[in-house]
């Protein structure tokens, strides 16, 4: 499992429909990279305020497996773990809903589903059932 301990994520809320995602290396307060994103059309709104936490790559990488590895038990100053999961992999693919439900079951604070190809900018679609999705998510 790739553990990204040097990257902080800050999701700054613009309104209920948009968010800004910034990745900031832990050793620098001045360098960051901005990523375009769109909120999921299900689950809680991102308008509650900023979410800040440490990023961790999904293991297994697709995020489709119910045996998704939970966040590390090591101390985290920020206290939140944010799962970083690709939209699809060559070996396995599933719905956004399934990825987010698996992350929620594994105790992640938030989920970022990212596109492998930059040209693919479709939004996270609605789910068949909004019931029991408490995870904030963005893509």
From TrEMBL:
Residues 56-117 form the PA domain. The keyword Signal applies. It comes from the Eukaryota. Residues 1-19 form the signal peptide. Keywords: Signal. This is PA domain-containing protein.
